[in-house]
Amino acid sequence: MGRCCVPNCRGNYDNGPKVRLFSFPRDAKRRAEWQRAVRRSDVDVRLLKDPKVCERHFKSEHLRTTSTYTDCDGRTIEAPMKLTRLTPDAFPAIFPDCPSYISNSRTSREEPELKRKRTENELLQKAIHESQAAFEKEEKQYKVCNLGELISRVNERPNKKFWCTTACETCLIVAHIEPALQAPEMLVSVVVTEDLSVSVYFKCAPLVSDDVCIPDEVRDVRVLDNLLDSVERYCEKKARQQEDKVGGVLRLVLSLLDDICDDELHDDERADALIFLKEQCKLLTKKSNGVRFCPSQAVCRHCGRTHKKDSQCEETPFCVACQAAGHIYLDPNCPTRAFRATSPPLPKKNAAAKSNQGEQPEPLDKNTGTPPKTWSQVKPKKTDGPPLPKKLSPTAAEDTVQANPATQPRVEKHNELQRTPSTLDRKSSVTTDQALDTIMQLLEKLNSRMEAIERAMAQQEQVIMQHKEVNEQEIAQIKATADECKRNYRRARNRSRE
Known about the structure:
The protein is α+β, with helices and mostly antiparallel strands. It is built from 10 helices and 11 strands.
């Protein structure tokens, strides 16, 4: 073990203190500075083989007892060192056993680069502490501990148009109710129980989707707000997909009906029914808000003017549909309703027949929807069955029924059809109600099929989520192993430096 070469210093001598020794630096400039600082008169320090100076002759800022490390977040980690080391600019400056004038009292100036880094580190540490304090304050403001506190926080916030909130002793329910023709339907619901666990249901089934991140529990009001926003976006996306599906199905039905109507059909009644069904499907493709007349409840149905709904109107009846006086809106005697209730016309054949005669076809009457008299030149196609009698007078009808009682249903039905305003001169056996029932049955089948497809898709999504959870667990294990390797590498690097 070496000894200190400074005059009058007993460091590491038999009767002296045990101290840490440092060799002279190898750099010629710094080595000469150390030799001038020692000032030994009896021995030339330059001739010594390995001179050493103990730690008692260095200032505290020149001694390194700890090691620091700054991570990517700006946090400085400090750890004690096993052996004391010197800074690169250290030199002997304290000589306690020598005269005071020998000691060098000059102070070392901090380098600009080190000063800049130190200032940046201090500012960064200050910003981190302020951010952490603001985060803790915000967490305390939005944090909830039980269901009652969550309900009170939700009630303090403004209500959203999309959601309806219901609170009880055991749970908090936030649901969206979809309006329907008969009974309202609960489309989606978010349920928070007493232990603050969360469940999301879409059409009475648990919601499983990658678009919605469902937390295990709600300990923060902002978590519930983010969940409601994501569920609302999911419902809007589902609504758009549903509209696209219905539109695609209706377009397919329309294309099939076009193919059927283009063929040469000998059964006029079947042709009328198919054309009517086609027109109804076209109406289904229209937007629900594209109404023809004003649906405002403030407009009186009796007189068509604006006044209170509960007041008894004594004005002259006026229809806002046909803009005529004498009857109220949606009255059975309204020409527009009679025109819409009848089967649609087939003007193509008549127009083609008249164009062959070298004349332009005349349009239908806008008020009654009946064809002009000139269209009678076109003869209707003969059917295979027996022809129906023309409109009979009461006396002639009774004579016909008495002569042949089996013709009574045909005569009554024929006279009833003749009394109804129609756009065709031939009989239509398909009424509006029957066609609408057919459409509703078709749509119910399509709806049941789409629900089955959605259930299958939900099952597939659940399987995908399970596989995804397994993959996430494996990734988490790999990350943990990688972090452990990094920590071991840093420990080994610190040991090698020491």
